[in-house]
Design a protein that fits this description.
440 residues; 18 helices; alpha/beta; 3-stranded antiparallel sheet
Length: 440
Amino acid sequence: MLTTTIVAGLALGALAGCTSSGQDDGGGEGADGVTTLDMWVFAELHGQVYEEMAEKWNEENPDKQIDLNLSVYPYQDMHDKLLLAVNSGQGLPDLADIEVGKFGNFVKGSNPPLADLTEAAEPYIDDIVQARLDLYSRDGKIYGYPTHVGAFVAFYNTELLDGAGIDYTTIKTWDDFAAAGTMYNDATDKAFSVASTGVFFTEPLAIAQNGGELFDDDGLGSPALNSPEVVETMEMFQDMKDAGALSTIPGGSPDSEEAFGAINNGDYAAIVYPAWYTSRFVDYMPDLSGKIAIAPAPQIEGSDILTIGGGGTGTSVLAASEHKDLASEFLAFTKLSLEANVAVWEVLGFDPVNMSVWEDEAITHNPDNKFNQYFQTNLFDVLNSVKDGIAHFQSFSNPNLPTVDNQFRTVTLNEIYESGTPAADALEQAQDTVLNELGE
């Protein structure tokens, strides 16, 4: 989950150390009054958006000109290099993208190496999805700005469902989803939706709706994989797998090259995934254009949580930066402003964190937009219908999430979905294994 889905729709930067044409590679203010800001990213397309926003910043701020010195590194290399620089105090950039699964490594303790971005966010804060700011906040301070909401939605192949006599608009709850999936499987002998074995991603949505977390103390404490909420949720998904409503998929998740081919071929009729998956359909499944409807994700009846954000990249300013204030102001403009979030939708196909974009139909319903042209329904109509129920799943920001995630991806999901091990037993074993690995 943490290395494949967070960078949704983006090519990993293959050119380590590739920089823009900065005048001063060392960082600092040049003789012409232009301040060079060094920035590290792990996704090349992110970098393109940042460079575009730097140009807009310079147009709007002639007295605060910057030269963005951008370096693109492969995912793991960048995070390792950044952690080494933080620990040594040497070679730090001014700004950096930090993927959500790595973010906990940089906000441990009482004195994080990241700048407090709370004040710089003030001009935009009322329009931003609070749950996504919470993901990169600690003790009331914001240490990173989000890239997208990543709200879970449902994608339905209406051509396939209509052929089986199923109306996707009647699917409201997970019980409805399970019943439709079983009906579809019985009628067609084909897969309805996905039981992923390579990523642990959709199940946390239902865990959150059930009032649970993967860790105790509201997601901030020790692993709680055998809690009643987690067990109940995983038993629900296992029952759906046993009933034919869920099936495993080539590649282990919907977000893999093998899966794109299978879905494009009509082998699966429904996908519950974050809203950024729109880019996957447009880029990798051209044969389904005009056949896919976007709808709210299934609900747990009675839950106030309608969806959660899946994945994310938090962009931060390093506390040691000599240009911390300017970098913070520029970053708020680049990640939180209306202009920036229009680009997030139009360039990346992500759901913007600035909800003022959601309300501008000239943008959201633009008939020339390639995402609007592809789907039967409008993404922002769906987002607006659930916006009051977008929750923050605290476990996604727990620093021990990578250990828990690895256990699910390598052992537990296969036991539950492939081997048929009762979910409660598999989770009890997972809890023991993770506690041993963490020394608890």
